[in-house]
Design goal:
Largest sheet: 8 strands, mixed
Strand content: 15-25%
Number of helices: 14
Strand order of the largest sheet: 2-20-12-15-11-3-6-7
Radius of gyration: 23 Å
Structural class: alpha/beta
CATH superfamily: Spore Coat Polysaccharide Biosynthesis Protein SpsA, Chain A
Number of strands: 20
CATH topology: Spore Coat Polysaccharide Biosynthesis Protein SpsA, Chain A
């Protein structure tokens, strides 16, 4: 059976006859491109994910318990020195790397381009998000006399624009040979009838498969092999949009080494029981982050004997892994969550449809879903004003305005020390 016939059989099997019709209308070049894409997609997986959108998420309360953490502000002098020394030794040895997840666009900020190219109005002249992260790494390099390898994960959608931007700005002075850019994987978008959407370029419309795809994308891109060749032992993974992100926190790293765990994370206390953040817990004896929408209200409000929220440690995308942990997570299938979103598409008559309401499902895995593969996690509670100033929304909470204030206040405090 030839490639085209094989693709048509698959499409018919999964009720994608609109794509069969499209194949017949395309010129040879476009047809071959679409056929290559069809043969690459796992239709069985996509239909299974589509079927899951009709099922209710169930969390059995009796399986969830609170999780231990250490509060950075309450560590004894001896603890702090011990952790800092262990962390510093590891970073100085050149066995530490960082990954920045930068696959998103700045759409929600009203910014046309990759999120990392957004300029935050700090100190009058402003700084790009990539530049702020570079400053953070550069400071660690000077302090620990090293050059930390920096891996930047883009999406197919924003890869070229990101590369062009960083080249134009000469990587803001970071050694170019220490920077590796790789792209994350994608999954098709599916409408409410289970039909895959078609994009303007006459291909199946795909979108990045969530930050949980970071592990498998590190492996598929060769970046994981590159880390191993460099002798990397610990890897930090964080987002591009937190302007107070500490990518080389020796206290967090030293605590993880001291506890003998494979994964570690920094948290901040929830602002209130109903803040829309994922929180750490243990489920069935394994570390877990529960999304705010999936945590029963009663549990969200529960307090411990000290009057603190029982489930109050927010996940702020500040995660550490041994290289073995990343290898393990890269080979395990993660669960996918569906998001119902607005996506334009090309209809059967070749016309573009721009919906006014959500019309399709985007499937995403979350980076923290891999925590369940491990027996334990070391959590270090930081402070919101020191560690968490995300730039997510155009106005209000987690906006450029709030991030600017937190960033400037933090650095004013540091400069007074």
């Amino acid at each position: 059976m030839d490639k085209e016939q094989e693709a048509i059989e698959i499409l018919k099997k999964y009720n994608q006859n609109h794509i069969v019709n499209l194949l017949n209308k395309l010129d040879e070049v476009k047809k071959q491109e679409l056929l290559d894409q069809i043969n690459r997609i796992d239709f069985g997986q996509i239909m299974e994910l589509y079927d899951n959108t009709k099922k209710e998420i169930e969390i059995k309360e009796n399986k969830i318990e609170s999780i231990d953490y250490l509060d950075k502000a309450k560590l004894s002098k001896e603890q702090r020195e011990k952790f800092d020394t262990l962390g510093e030794e590891l970073i100085r040895s050149g066995k530490y790397a960082v990954v920045t997840m930068a696959g998103g666009q700045g759409t929600r900020l009203g910014h046309n381009g990759p999120k990392g190219t957004f300029k935050l109005d700090v100190y009058g002249k402003g700084k790009y998000l990539f530049e702020i992260l570079k400053d953070n790494l550069e400071e660690a390099n000077k302090k620990y006399d090293t050059v930390i390898p920096w891996y930047i994960m883009t999406s197919k959608e924003n890869n070229q624009a990101t590369v062009d931007f960083l080249e134009k700005h000469n990587y803001f002075g970071y050694p170019k040979e220490a920077v590796t850019i790789f792209t994350q994987s994608e999954l098709p978008l599916v409408d409410t009838e289970g039909k895959l959407l078609i994009s303007k370029d006459m291909k199946i419309k795909e979108a990045s498969d969530g930050n949980g795809g970071t592990y498998s994308s590190l492996r598929a891109s060769g970046s994981l092999a590159d880390m191993k060749n460099k002798g990397i032992k610990w890897v930090f993974i964080g987002g591009v949009d937190n302007v107070l992100l500490k990518m080389a926190d020796v206290t967090l790293l030293g605590m993880a080494i001291d506890k003998g765990v494979q994964i570690a994370s920094k948290s901040v206390v929830k602002a209130n029981p109903h803040e829309k953040v994922g929180v750490f817990c243990k489920m069935n004896g394994h570390p877990k982050v529960i999304e705010y929408a999936e945590l029963p209200e009663k549990m969200a409000e529960e307090v411990d004997s000290d009057g603190e929220l029982k489930y109050g440690e927010s996940h702020i995308m500040c995660n550490l892994y041994t290289i073995d942990a990343i290898e393990k997570a890269s080979k395990e299938p993660l669960i996918y969550h569906s998001a119902f979103k607005k996506n334009s598409y090309i209809d059967e008559n070749g016309k573009e449809v721009v919906p006014s309401e959500p019309n399709s499902y985007k499937f995403e895995s979350f980076i923290f879903d891999a925590f369940e593969f491990f027996d334990d996690i070391a959590i270090l509670r930081g402070k919101r004003e020191d560690d968490f100033a995300p730039v997510k929304n155009r106005e209000g909470v987690d906006s450029p305005k709030t991030a600017k204030e937190l960033y400037e206040k933090f650095w004013n405090r540091q400069n007074k020390k």
